[in-house]
Amino acid sequence: MSSSINLSSSSPSTISLSRSRLSQTCTTPIIHRVALPSNHQPSLSIKTTGKVKVKASVISREDDLLSYTNGNAPIQDPSQADSVSLGTLAPSDSANAPPNGFVADDDDYELDLPTPGFSSIPEAIQDIRQGKLVVVVDDEDRENEGDLVMAAQLATPEAMAFIVKHGTGIVCVSMKEDDLERLNLPLMVNHKENEEKLCTAFTVTVDAKHGTTTGVSARDRATTILSLASRDSKPEDFNRPGHIFPLKYREGGVLKRAGHTEASVDLTVLAGLDPVGVLCEIVDDDGSMARLPKLRHFAAENCLKIVSIADLIRLGLCAPLHIFYKDV
């Protein structure tokens, strides 16, 4: 059986699937559609043939990889495998893993079918491309949290107000190392001194110097995020400390680290946008972290797509050689 996904530049956002698992009508969307600049008209084609079963095992070859077992216990030895068992993904035997760390064989998984109860990754990509927010959920054995995610270059005051209202208020921006170095944004602490549970790579916090007041309002945060996403920004364009928390993205994305930091950038890149993503954890009405099924209810109530990092990993495992992206 063959399945295909197409994102075409012939219209602001088009997508075709061989079948759809989610149909939702939203009469009052929270975030309005954003028109992309003329120089951002991507064409993305993903195609896979046959039925695929995915087993994920990331082999550490870099010193900064922190691995976790299913019991959430850290593995400090970087030579050990980082087993990714998100959703229905089963960890593979690392001893038998191929050089790239992944194996795939025949089974009942099809690329365009998400994990039950979730939207598909192509649906999320479509919304990200239009400047909308999506909910991204990780594994229950990891943080067991859902984050609001969007493309940084399409940030708006309205989106920031929604994020702050429903999130922790700690608004983060995931960025690649080259951009962090260009803007002179060092890590808060180096890897060896990082005692955060999942070793999240926080940099110094920032506010934009121009076009902001205190830096804390929704408009000021949007301005700062847009400045971080701009290729023209310079180190002197930011005050330190500030109210926005840049994060260092791990190269290799969710195939290397199954976190929201990596998922936000991966989704943005798949949408044909610059590799800078916005993310913030969602909280319940009582201030506690929102869990499933409340995250699903929240997404449905606000007409947001909800996707799992497990499905994003599957996309990367099933079709890494079938993704063709170019500006047209």
UniProtKB/TrEMBL annotation:
Q: Give the molecular function GO annotations.
A: 3,4-dihydroxy-2-butanone-4-phosphate synthase activity; GTP binding; metal ion binding
Question: GO terms for biological process?
Answer: riboflavin biosynthetic process
For this protein, what does the record note about how its cofactor is bound?
Answer: Binds 2 divalent metal cations per subunit. Magnesium or manganese.
Q: Where in the cell is it found?
A: Plastid, Chloroplast
The ranges of region (Disordered) come to 69-100
Reported cofactor(s): Mg(2+); Mn(2+)
Presence of keyword Cell cycle: no
State the reactions this protein catalyses.
Answer: D-ribulose 5-phosphate = (2S)-2-hydroxy-3-oxobutyl phosphate + formate + H(+)
Q: What is its EC number?
A: 4.1.99.12
State which pathway it belongs to: Cofactor biosynthesis; riboflavin biosynthesis; 2-hydroxy-3-oxobutyl phosphate from D-ribulose 5-phosphate: step 1/1
Q: Does the keyword GTP-binding apply?
A: yes
The main enzyme category here is: lyase
The family database entries (NCBIfam families) matched by this protein are listed as: ribB (TIGR00506)
Assigned protein family: In the N-terminal section; belongs to the DHBP synthase family.
What does the annotation say about its assembly with partners?
Homodimer.
Q: Which PANTHER family match?
A: BIFUNCTIONAL RIBOFLAVIN BIOSYNTHESIS PROTEIN RIBA 1, CHLOROPLASTIC (PTHR21327:SF48), GTP CYCLOHYDROLASE II-RELATED (PTHR21327)
Instruction: Quote the HAMAP family the UniProt record gives.
Output: RibB (MF_00180)
The UniProt function text for this chain reads: Catalyzes the conversion of D-ribulose 5-phosphate to formate and 3,4-dihydroxy-2-butanone 4-phosphate.
Identify this protein by name. Answer: 3,4-dihydroxy-2-butanone 4-phosphate synthase
- Species source reads Brassica cretica (Mustard)
